[in-house]
């Protein structure tokens, strides 16, 4: 069974990104369905070590997070465009969401990389859910 794509939005992303996510699930021996469920939440405990490792693996694999645990804005924009922003979404809405993620999520930095990754994921999903751009069955 193919892994449902990162953050379970059911949109098509490039095969390389999908492969990263599949490898992270496989390497960490995680349950795909549980990853899908956790990916939709904005309140996953940031001390959830196993899923923190998953998001760290995905974010570093996609280039969203560098070796110093800093987030890379241009790669976050690629993720947003590939996974969350559907083609007809107004440019102003995209810019507002991206700006809010830049302001509230990009500065996140904890002493543990896994915790940084999990807090970023929660922050980003919270902003996306708040924006109401996703269908109700996904949000």
From TrEMBL:
- This chain's protein is named Uncharacterized protein
Name a Pfam family for this protein: PBP_GOBP
Keyword terms, alphabetized:
Signal
Signal peptide limits: 1-16
User: Is Signal among the key words of this record?
Assistant: yes
Question: Does the keyword field hold ATP-binding?
Answer: no
* Domain of life the protein comes from: Eukaryota
Under the heading InterPro entries, the entry gives: PBP/GOBP, PBP_GOBP_sf
What SUPFAM superfamilies does the record tag this protein with?
A: Insect pheromone/odorant-binding proteins
